[in-house]
Write a structure and sequence with these properties.
Chain A: Keywords: ATP-binding, Cell membrane, Membrane, Nucleotide-binding, Translocase, Transport. Chain A: Belongs to the ABC transporter superfamily. Chain A: This is ABC transporter ATP-binding protein. Chain A: It is a peripheral membrane protein. The complex is a heterodimer. Chain A is α+β, with helices and mostly antiparallel strands. Chain A has 2 domains: 220 residues, 3-Layer(aba) Sandwich (Rossmann fold), CATH 3.40.50.300; 132 residues, OB fold (Dihydrolipoamide Acetyltransferase, E2P) (Beta Barrel), CATH 2.40.50.140. Chain A has 8 helices and 20 strands. In chain A, α2 runs parallel beside α4. Chain B is mostly helical. Chain B folds into 2 domains: 60 residues, no CATH class; 179 residues, MetI-like (MetI-like fold, Orthogonal Bundle). Helix content of chain B is 68%, strand content 5%. In chain B, the strands form 2 sheets. Chain B has a two-stranded antiparallel ribbon with strand order 1-2. The chains are: A alpha+beta, B mainly alpha. At the A-B interface, β6 and α2 of A face α11 and α12 of B.
Chain lengths: 365, 325
């Protein structure tokens, strides 16, 4: 089990920079998710940690040991691929036992270890089957078995649930987290699915265009996004932005968008007049007739216990999450009231969050 | 007829299925396949039959379909004979073997074995040797092109292909001069190198397609699990590329087995292969057609065997790229 440290890691392919100067530390036993849209460099980072790709610059430390240019086989790390990569010419037991065989372990010992791993994953009954006959979920379990069998220092997983159907994905999410808790190994998990990251990870790194935008617990990332990108990427529907022009002074408790005054958490830094954005999560909006921000209901999406109501306001379209019992008529004019303690402010130019009381002193990543 | 078809349509829901062919379509399709088979197999059958004809039956007009079979063609193919007077033959001790007897009926005696066996051995060595080399080199090159970032990879691949665009005979004279300088004319090594050079371009292109289809995650998993690159190639990639390798091997073998122009130009004695040998099987008063047919029959056998042995892979191999798994 190990701590993984990344220092100034950079990777470029010809003209294109896939990862630009990442710095972070993953503590021993952490379930660490790297989340971002495709092409953001999360998989490249993972492959560099595994040794399948060599960095252009920077260092990778495993338990304090520099492994930047060490061969993949010598790093004692296991990798789980999106397409499982089970060897099609071997059966399940041979697939799981493969890494041990590579190390030259005796056949009897291999069999014993494979048995034990299979028991842990509850796939003992599949050991002699062909991998091509397995369902997606079972293939994933076999792939996990192959990763676990030699007790590696860390697990690296590249969208391991991406190839499963939604139903299975949910089930495997639970199993993966459960497995992580039982084994206690450091896990780095790459995904573009925020639900997977939010439900499993202890720590999430949100990446965009090769940069890490924010690292934090799922709650921190959701409640106090460090940038407009994070705010927009996390949450479904994403955070609403009301853009306005204005300056801010430390201690301000309200802003004016056109002529509407909106209460906000106390501002903790000074800002000269610049394009700014007010960020509101859909669930922090209520319909109140007296509210200064008004608009016409454009549509409603029924989701069972809640509904997503979109409202056209003078400042853009806003999505609100309301209890599904709330009566909504399309075209009706409504007033929007925001939960003032939970609002976020962003500088549109840099995309970064402006420090407010809501941040609870947290730093940007 | 049309009424019957119209009536049966509503009853059978698959009548217009895009998956299931209608009975008529099936009949037309099998008719075409049978016709094609007859057209391609008939000449082959004619050759096999001609090998069992006598000299006069072979050139009879109109052609004889029914004839008295004889092994003369095969005997003539494998032996060198001399004509003798009937008196001389009468004085000889009685023939020891059935082929001695057969030859004496025509007032001839066997003077020794013909060169067909060494020529056949040459063909086997050169054909399979160059196929092995081309597939071996092709696999390594294709793997490299498929997996590594090679500067100018596309240009290099096109350059490799361009050696195939040009008809090989266009460079026959330079190659002849080069080979003479290097003492490679009329050697098996020379022919193996030449056929390998021609085949390797085909092998690289075909195999690159196959290896591209094998997800690289397989090797990467093996690399993470403790294999070196070469071990991963041998134990993980190659078993999955078997289909492609078999298909490529067949194409390479067919080329080097049948190659005629260079064989005529560059071999005469030692390293001569079957293709230049067969047309020059001369009997009394010109071409010995039954012997030529016998040689052709034997010449076709190895490639048929090889193809039949690998046909399972070949079928999947020829449709490569068509199906995404």
């Amino acid at each position: 089990m190990a701590q993984i440290r990344i220092e100034n890691l950079r990777k470029s392919f010809d003209q294109f920079t896939a990862v630009q100067g990442s710095n972070f530390t993953i503590d021993d036993g952490t379930f660490f998710a790297m989340l971002g849209p495709s092409g953001c460099g999360k998989t490249t980072t993972l492959r560099m940690i595994a040794g399948l790709e060599l960095p252009t610059e920077g260092k990778i430390l495993l338990d304090g040991e520099d492994v930047t240019f060490r061969r993949a086989a010598a790093r004692d790390i296991a990798f789980v691929f999106q397409l499982f990569a089970l060897y099609p010419h071997m059966n399940v037991a041979d697939n799981i036992g493969f890494p041990l065989k590579c190390q030259g372990m005796r056949r009897r010992e291999v069999r014993q270890q494979v048995q034990e791993t299979a028991r842990l994953l509850r796939i003992e009954h599949l050991l002699s089957s062909k991998t091509s006959k397995l369902s997606g979920g079972d293939r994933q379990r076999v792939a996990l078995g192959r990763a676990m069998v030699r007790r590696p220092k860390a697990f690296l997983m590249d969208e391991p649930l991406g190839a499963l159907d939604a139903e299975f994905r949910h089930l495997m999410c639970g199993e993966l987290r459960d497995l992580h808790d039982r084994i206690g190994a450091t896990t780095v998990y790459v995904t573009h699915d925020q639900l997977e990251a939010m439900s499993m990870a202890d720590q999430i790194a949100v990446m965009n265009k090769g940069c890490i935008e924010q690292i934090g617990s799922p709650q921190e990332i959701y409640d106090r996004p460090a940038s407009m990108f994070v705010a927009d990427f996390i949450g479904s529907p994403p955070m609403n932005f009301l853009r306005f022009e204005g300056g801010l002074r430390s201690g301000d408790r309200a802003i004016a968008i056109h002529d509407a005054r909106i209460a906000i958490p106390e501002i903790r830094e000074d800002r000269a007049s610049a394009p700014l954005a007010l960020g509101i999560r859909p669930e922090h909006i209520r319909f109140t007739d007296a509210a200064p921000v008004r608009g016409a209901v454009f549509g409603a999406e029924y989701l069972g216990t809640t509904q997503i109501v979109t409202v056209d306001t003078a400042h853009g379209r806003v999505a609100a999450r309301l209890p599904s019992s709330a009566p909504v008529r399309i075209g009706e004019t409504v007033g929007l009231e925001f939960h003032s303690e939970r609002l976020a402010l962003f500088d549109v130019g840099s995309g970064l969050a402006i420090r407010t009381a809501n941040e609870g002193g947290a730093r940007h990543g | 007829m049309t009424a019957a078809v119209a009536k049966s349509v509503p009853a059978k829901s698959t009548a217009h299925s895009i998956v299931e062919a209608s009975p008529r379509a099936k009949a037309v399709a099998s008719g075409l396949v049978i016709l094609y088979a007859v057209i391609t197999i008939l000449p082959l059958l004619w050759i096999v039959a001609t090998a069992f004809k006598s000299q006069s039956d072979a050139i009879a007009y109109p052609p004889k379909v029914i004839f008295e079979p004889t092994l003369e063609g095969y005997v003539n193919l494998f032996t060198v004979r001399t004509r003798q007077t009937p008196d001389f033959i009468a004085k000889l001790p009685p023939p020891e073997t059935w082929y001695d007897k057969l030859v004496r009926q025509r007032d001839m005696v066997i003077a020794g074995p013909s060169k067909v066996v060494p020529r056949f051995v040459n063909s086997l060595i050169i054909g399979f040797g160059s196929t092995f080399l081309a597939v071996f080199l092709g696999t390594l090159a294709a793997y490299a092109f498929s997996r590594f970032r090679i500067p100018l990879a596309d240009d290099l691949l096109f350059f490799i292909l361009s050696t195939r665009i040009m008809p090989p005979v266009a460079v026959a004279i330079p190659i002849y001069l080069m080979y003479r300088q290097l003492n490679l004319t009329d050697t098996r090594l020379g022919m193996i190198l030449l056929y390998t050079a021609v085949n390797v371009s085909l092998a690289v292109w075909l195999l690159k397609g196959f290896i591209d289809e094998i997800p690289r995650e397989y090797e990467e998993a093996a690399l993470v699990d403790g294999y070196t690159r070469l071990q991963a190639l041998r134990k993980v990639v190659l078993p999955q590329a078997v289909t492609g390798i078999a298909a490529t091997a067949i194409f390479c073998l067919i080329f080097s087995w049948n190659e005629y122009a260079f064989a005529v130009l560059l071999t005469s004695g030692e390293a001569q292969t079957m293709p230049p040998f067969i047309p020059f099987i001369i009997g009394e008063g010109g071409q010995d057609w039954p012997a030529v047919a016998a040689a052709t029959t034997l010449f076709v056998v190895p490639i048929v065997l090889f193809t039949v042995l690998l046909r399972k892979h070949l079928l999947r191999g020829i449709t490569f790229g068509a199906v995404r798994k």
